[in-house]
Input
Amino acid sequence: MPVVHINLIKGRTKEQKAAMADEISEVIHKHSSAPKEVAIVTFNDIEPDS
Output
């Protein structure tokens, strides 16, 4: 099962993150043949000054 962790500067909406996760899952499926539904994409919001 593919797991992707993404660090982002705070400020993205839930909708933006969902769209990113969908696209990332699609790329994983395309290049690994893993079903799109099994990819796990997590987001870690960080402060801009970190």
About this structure: The beta strands are 3-9, 40-46. The chain has a mean pLDDT of 94. The chain is about 40% helix and 30% strand. The domain at 3-46 is CATH 3.30.429.10 (Macrophage Migration Inhibitory Factor).
